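hey can u check if this looks right to u? its 496 residues, i copy pasted from the old doc so theres a chance i mangled smth
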Amino acid sequence: MPKVVVIGGGWAGCAASISAKKAGCEVVLLERTDLLIGLGNVGGIMRNNGRYTACEEAIALGANELFNITDKYAIHTNIDFPGHNHATIYNVTKVEPAVRRMLIDMDIKVKLISRVVNVECEDNILKAVILENGETIYGDAFVDTTGTTGPMGNCERYGNGCAMCVLRCPSFGGRVSITSRCGIDDMTGKRKNGDFGAFSGSMKILKTSLSQEIQDKLAKDGHVEIFLPEYLRDEKKLDIKVCQQYALPQFAQNVILIDTGHAKLMTPFFNLEKLRKVPGCENAMIVSTIITVNVREYLTQKCIESNVSIVNVLGPIINVASSILNEQPQYNPGAMWKTDEAYFKRIEAMEFAMQYDDSKDYRGLKNADVVLIGLSRTSKTPLCMYLANKGIKAINIPLVPEVGVPDEIYEIDRDRIFALTIDPMQLIEIRKRRLDKFKRIPTTIEYAGDARILDEFDFADRIIRRLGCRTIDVTQRAIEDTALIIIKTLTKEKKI
């Protein structure tokens, strides 16, 4: 059974996974966050404009599964508002769990919080992807559905409801393009003003903070349009809209709300002070996730003075957690994604590992903190990536009798060289299993043959003895354990 690996669990990734499974493939779906369907968790709109025909055509061709779910959780159908005709509006809070259950029921292996950071190629053919934790996922075919190439700092630049929060960017790290890792340039979208980016943006408003009249109209019609006086309009904000059905004058001239379970405000930004001047939105509230105490208290005080409702989300949670754990919170915002010296050192190390992986370029030897040598399938590349995530520049040299080793390796500090050894019987089994993944390659090929492997062991032994370097037996040893041995050794000797 061919194995298909899909990277990215948005709508496209889920659809690709379903199609591959229905075609008889083993399917693994990798998603870097803890939610599937990506911006489907904020969109809520289906079957509008040309999508109506596209949906029906896709269903007729057998791709009905995802459409059945959005239809099942539709709140409103066949509604019209600026830029949209006969739209279906679904409840964004209920669709993702249903999609996840369906994929699991189809025996699709869904791996959440699984960020792909690198690839493994042979002769310009993609063989595997490498996760942030060092795990290597092999496959016969790979589908990159990671979506936007925009920097995860978009939320700081555009802010106020650009939907980046749905992607949980600070918690799970930025998107990595698998196609670019394979040497293929991504296509990039541009906004009207020339900036890179692909988020049109919207804001979420608690429906109960709106007037009863607006709530009733949302429930009945699915949308509300509130005409804005001239002083509340901002025509320039239309320039940052990518989807042209949103870059219409009506979206600057009106407050347009649709009912997606939340009240979705169809604009990339609307100042709260101005919003509260809109009839029916006088009670619009601020939901705060600020954790810095003095800033949180200042904001709360200003809201009280201005008679603005505010709810602090994280404060009570932090207090309860502090009480249970008997630990004082550090109140350090952005701690999980801090761009300090250690962060940049880690990024530099990861770029180094990718640039010099598997003998791509021997020039990196003199600048490496660690040099790994070993036979094929001794986990050299995953170990390099794991060390890189610790800020250690690692390079690996495969030991192949026909190729030999570069002369430069004899000129560097041998205390930085670690030879990875393994039990011959285990290596034979690993290589045979790998060949089994490639159906057209016979398992009797020399790569996994007893005689070939013994020849490689003999060659490796000669190289190791000549170098006089340290050895680590990786038989039944986890990458983390091997890395710990290397780190402890180099730290003790003050090599890092």
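The chain has four domains: 3-44+91-181, 200-284, 287-336, 341-492.
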